[in-house]
Amino acid sequence: MANIVQFDNVGLRYGTGAETLSDLSFSLMRGQFYFLTGPSGAGKTSLLKLLYLSQRPSRGQIRMFGEDLVTARRDRLPAFRRRIGVVFQDFQLVPHLSAFDNVALPLRVSGVDEREIAAPVREMLAWVGLEDRASARPATLSGGEQQRVAIARAVIGRPDLLVADEPTGNVDPEMAQRLLHLFDGLNRLGTTVVVATHDLHLLSRIGTAQMMRLDRGRLSDPTGALRYPPRPEDRSNAMKGSS
Ligand SMILES: Nc1ncnc2c1ncn2[C@@H]1O[C@H](COP(=O)(O)OP(=O)(O)OP(=O)(O)O)[C@@H](O)[C@H]1O
Q1: How close is the Cα of 174 to the center of ligand 1, in Å?
Q2: What pLDDT is recorded for position 1?
Q3: I want to staple 97 with a disulfide (CB 3.0 to 4.6 A). Which of 101, 107, 141, 237 is the partner?
Q4: Which residues are CB-neighbours of 186 under 8 A, at least 6 positions away?
Q5: 36, 46, 58: which to mutate for ligand 1, most atoms within 8 A of CB?
Q6: Residue 203 CA to ligand 1 centre (angstroms)
Q7: Model confidence at 243: pLDDT above 90
Q8: Contact 39 CB / ligand 1 (< 6 Å)
Q9: Domain 31-48+78-220: which CATH class?
C-alpha cells in the first residue's frame, strides 16, 4: 500500500507561543480509514489544517501525493487542494449559493461539463436527505442540514484524501450512521479518509479503521502502525506475525 501523506518531525506554532503540535512523524496510507481522537484542545483541528493545507508547519517536512509540500511553489497548492475534500468544523458554505450550487462547486472548479453536474449533485443531496432543500441558501438551513451540505460537497468529487472535522457533531445518531456509511463507501473506492471525532460510538463502526490519538499536541501511537519508518521492534513483531 502506497503512502499518500508523510509527516517527518512536524511542529506547528501559532505566533510566538508554545508549539501546538510537536514531533509528528507518521504516514497515511492510500485507501486507509483513520479516526483522529483526543481531548478538546489537543490539536486535532490544527493537524487537519496541516492536512488540508490551510496551515504550513513551523518545522519538519510534509510530503503529500509524492511531493514535498514545504518547498512546493505556492502556485502548486490549488492543484493539491483539488485532490482533498474537506468537511470544516464550521462548514464554510458559500453564503450566497444554494445548497445545490455549494455541492456542485468542486465539480465546477474541476471543469466538469455543466450537463454532467445536475445528476450527481441531486443524487448526493438525496443521500444526505436534502433533496427538498436544493435551492435553499445556507442561512435558511439548520446546523445539521448545513453540515450535510458540507459533507456532500466534500465527497462529490471523489477526492484522493477526505479530511472531516467532527462531521457528525450536529446530526442525530441515525444520520451519523448514514454519513459514516457514505465515508466508508468513498473509502472503499480508494479515498484515504481522516475523521476527527469525539464520538466513541462512531469509532466502533469501521472495523478496519486505524486510530490516531493526539494528546497535548503529540501523537500517541501504541501499535506503531502510523510510525514511519517502523521501529525495529515493530518490524520484528510484524515478521513474527507473518511466520
Ligand atoms: N489560529 C490560532 N491561533 C492561536 N492558537 C490557536 C489557533 N488555533 C488553535 N489554537 C490553539 O491550539 C490548541 C489546539 O487547538 P485545536 O483547535 O487544534 O484543538 P482540537 O483538538 O481540535 O480541539 P476541539 O476538540 O475542542 O475542537 C488550542 O490551545 C487552541 O487555543
Answers
A1: 29
A2: 59
A3: 101
A4: 155, 158, 162, 193
A5: 46
A6: 22
A7: no
A8: no
A9: alpha beta
pLDDT at 225: 55
Which residue, by CA, sits nearest to atom 18 of ligand 1?
Answer: 43
Instruction: Return the axis-axis angle of helices 99-109 and 118-127, rounded to nearest 10°.
Output: 130
Q: Indicate whether 205 pLDDT > 50.
A: yes
Q: How far is Cα 222 from Cα 237, in angstroms, rounded to an integer?
A: 13
pLDDT of 204 > 60? The answer is yes
Find the 45 Cα to ligand 1 centroid distance in Å.
Answer: 7
Q: Whose CA is nearest to atom 3 of ligand 1?
A: 14
**Structure-block grid coordinates of residue 153:** 460537497
CA–CA dist 141, 213 (Å, integer):
33
Task: Tell me the pLDDT band of 191, cut-offs 50, 70 and 90.
Answer: very high
Instruction: Of 18-22, 119-123, 183-187, give the lowest mean pLDDT range.
Output: 183-187
Locate 18 and state its grid cell: 508554545
Give the CA distances from residue 200 to residues 5, 28, 107, 169, 232, in Å, rounded to whole numbers and listed in that order. 25, 21, 33, 12, 31
- Report the pLDDT value the prediction gives residue 223, as an integer from 0 to 100: 52
CA–CA dist 63, 2 (Å, integer): 13
Q: Is the CB of 43 under 6 A from ligand 1?
A: yes
Residue 25 grid cell? 512523524
For the CA of 166, the closest atom of ligand 1 is 27
Q: Is the peptide bond before 95 cis (omega within 30 degrees of 0)?
A: no
* C-alpha–C-alpha distance, residues 174 and 179, integer Å: 9
